[in-house]
Write the structure tokens for this entry.
Amino acid sequence: MEDLHGRVAVVTGAAGGIGLALVEQLAAEGMRVVMSDVDGERLAAAAATVEGEVEPVAADVARPQDVETLATRAAERFGAVDVLCNNAGVTRPGPAWELALEEWQWLLSVNVLGVVHGIRAFVPTMLARGEPGHVVNTASIGGLLPYAGIAAYTASKYAVVGLSEGLRLDLQAAGSPIGVSVLCPGPTETDFRAHSRALHPAGPADDVEGEYDGVARISATAAAALVVDAIRTDRFWVLTHPSYRPAIERRTRGIVETDEVVAGDFR
Ligand SMILES: NC(=O)c1ccc[n+]([C@@H]2O[C@H](COP(=O)([O-])OP(=O)(O)OC[C@H]3O[C@@H](n4cnc5c(N)ncnc54)[C@H](O)[C@@H]3O)[C@@H](O)[C@H]2O)c1
């Protein structure tokens, strides 16, 4: 989508971090943006800081009805949606066997079903219009490389990568002009862990401190700029840390040449 001016975007997880940076940059391009988050208070405060035409709509992406209502509100306020950014996400560290089933269900319902709900609520209408459009799903470098201690998050983000690849292929097969990108950020300067803890009572496994100490973190603004460029140029893979490419190659070689799991690291 070369020309973003005057078009309409929806961004979930927009009360802070990467989502808010995306809203700011899309609005600066002249887009009208529906920004959404489950945390209505932080969302309203964030919306008040954005220059441009934005509409805050509180919604829980884990609830299909909320996302349907979000689609209705977006259409009522700004008309047809051109760009959908399924960005909301949460994390909960700990070994797979230690997380309560309820914690698994929460994390998967936000990170995986949240994206599914977005696709189901918006893509059929976008498709029916036959106009160029774009879907951006936020996964993680943890959707391409496994890291010890975050198995549930890894599972959810691998799912987002696979879902995005499938969506890309299916839209191409349908002859649709709707592009797809998957954002795979490495460590990014946001309050991601704190927000997840605030949204959901932390279990005993969530006591990891200093996880990113000494790790190169990208700004949310820089990550969002890569996304805007990917929407413009219809690029699928959006990786924020080129330094991780050798690790991705090592993992792929691990699959075809060895029987080992090759862990990622933050270098
Ligand atoms: N920060 C990082 O290092 C990093 C790295 C890789 C991927 N990511 C991904 O980037 C995305 C944005 O995270 P961020 O780093 O900007 O952190 P963030 O916490 O600032 O943003 C996530 C937002 O999602 C919202 N949210 C959580 N559950 C929700 C729900 N059920 N419905 C609607 N909104 C909900 C939160 O309130 C929060 O505002 C997430 O999908 C995350 O997994 C972040």
